[in-house]
Amino acid sequence: MSLPVLECRQIxxxxxxxxxxxxxxxxxxxxxxxALVGQNGAGKSTLMKIINGVYTQDSGTILIExxxxxxxxxxxxxxxxxxxVFQDFSLVPTLSVSQNIFLARELSGGHLGLDDRRMxxxxxxLLDSIGIDISIHPRDYVENLSVxxxxxxxxxxxxxxxxxxLIFDEPTVGLDPTQIVEIRGLIRRLAENSxxxxxxxxxxxxxxxxxxxxxxINGQVRADxxxxxxxxxxxxxxxxxRQTSGVQEALGRLDHVRDVSAFVxxxxxxxxxxxxxxSTWPTAARPLHRRRPTTPSTSRRSSxxxxxx
Length: 309
Known about the structure:
2 domains; 4-stranded antiparallel beta sheet; 28% helix; Alpha-Beta Plaits; Rossmann fold; alpha/beta
């Protein structure tokens, strides 16, 4: 039996005394697409930046194919075969597209040694390999590109070196609907040769792309399973956008619900963890809607149920 491509063991990270990741454990199997799912503030970006060497964990271990890795920089992680497409962009705005890509290659242990014309030819081939109709020229300065175009240059940069693991932080943010479909197709193609981990809070994106989902809530892994296993779970997390009275009692009166516990998400929203039959969840939101006042100034809205641990 082959070893996992990547394994995280008991990863802990805090900033200023605030725990962001609390003993996170999971593995990535070769050739699969894994989704890291969670609300904004759940710790997704921090975890991926630890894997990519941007941050160092306070404690815990990262293993690549069974060997412990200690990265002091993203360049060291890249040399080990890990590339990341950042949501907040790691591009140098005052450099051209080709200069950004070849700077990343040089920092990862490669060598420039090429004139501008040759760098532009290679860059154009990388952009063409993405398979998306884009009007980006290798000589374009990054600061003049749209958000969507910058995202595509980040992807081209990640593809500029061979990678065992490709990490995407919210890969479709800033893209138009056509590009979203194309990026999803690109990720599927990349998974033929690399293991892919991408973060998202969009459940439809998980269903469209991934083999396995890792659900992160308040810095802890609450579920790690294939989609078919998650779909059959009897548990759920309900998150409201405002405090509403009587919700816990109303959920507890639903048929087949065994337990309801209240908590607050990391970004301050009221939430409820429920245990019960999967047949319950299509009707779980109804008691919440019945408690929603009709006056606009005091309207209470519930978010739809989200399957979770």
